[in-house]
Amino acid sequence: MNVMVLGPAGCGKSLLTEKFGAYLEKEGYSVRYINLDPACLSVSYRCSFDIRERVTVEKIMKEEKLGPNGAMIRAMEKLGHIEIPIYDEDFVLIDTPGQLEIFSFHECGPKIVNQFKELVGVFILDASVGVEDLPAMYMYSLATTYRLGINAINIVNKADLLDKKEIKSMQNFLSNPVRFKDIVEVKGVLLDIYSPISELLQKVLPAQRIPFISAKTGKGFDELLDLLYEIRCSCGDLT
Fold it and tell me: How would you classify the pairing of strands 91-95 and 31-35?
């Protein structure tokens, strides 16, 4: 199974790739690791394919006299023309660039996704943003997976930073987004924005359970593994 790890900068994509991969190996699965981030300085897992062997943001900045953002866009252009190896292991974990918006909304994103068969996405909702920003984060997840054209599950990472009350509030929203205005006190223009967004999410989101995990401690990895198999079932029911 090819698993592409997605999410905004700082949400824990690389740490999840490393720790979940180690968990899978401990469970007896064979695992390969792919790094598609040309801007990272190092990775803590052993790469079977590392895009930095072909292109790096640092090298582009020096050779083409570009700033960080320009170099990242140029790197994505190059990445879109690189053939990524196909592996037969039980799991292939694919770590994506920290600047997710450039990867997802540049033309290279769909090109890369189309190279993988049986691809499942894991989109990380960062628990540290708090329940107030979950609607925006959820919309980001929907836009990303729609743009890339992949089936994906959402997970909440950094659950170790939350207390029981915070987890309960997030679970209440995630199970029924339309209740957002009852969970969080929002006033003025934000209320005008969040209320219709929450109602929209309620209509368009498929029924699914969203695990609260910690890439740092390994909490919730069992449920994540179960969901990865379930999303592949023909019924597509993630409840």
Answer: parallel
Contact yes or no for 225/219 (Cβ under 8 A): no
| Pairwise CA distance, residues 151 & 224, whole Å | 15
Q: Per-residue pLDDT tens for 181-226? A: 555 555 556 556 666 666 666 665 555 678 999 999 999 999 999 9
pLDDT at 100: 87
The boundaries of the domain holding residue 59 are 2-163+208-230
**How many structural domains are present in the chain?**
1
Instruction: Determine, yes or no, domain membership for 113.
Output: yes
Look up the pTM and report it: 0.86
CATH number of the domain where residue 9 is located: 3.40.50.300
In contact, 131 and 170? CB cutoff 8 Å: yes
Q: How far is CA 97 from the centre of its chain?
A: 10
